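go over this chain:
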Amino acid sequence: MASDTPASQPSGKDRREFYRITATLPIRIQLETDQTEGELTQKSVNISGGGIGITVATVYQPNDILAVTVLLPDHGLFNAFAEVLRLDPIPSPEGTYRLHARFIRMTSQDREVLIRHIIRFQRDHLQAHYSA
């Protein structure tokens, strides 16, 4: 049975062992200290059990802790915390960045929920594009 205590943090190598998928999902990202409840916005998110990559217009600093809320189909709101690894400027549109962040303080149970949904996204994608 999965524990409710946070799992140990995956190393860089471990993060790459998690299967990644890019999906358009309703998501909200804000600093952990920001207590406002902003809107969820449909965005293309590269997501895995280890972290996320997403285009943002907000400048974050490495080591900032973000509160991430994603609306997962058939699950509802999924909340997690992520540590900013880096922010790369994107040439167009001006003022946008590629955010790279790793999930932190995530319980094993929450990570399993996320991984199950990632596998479901992939299965649905394959069925939609490759079924006769």
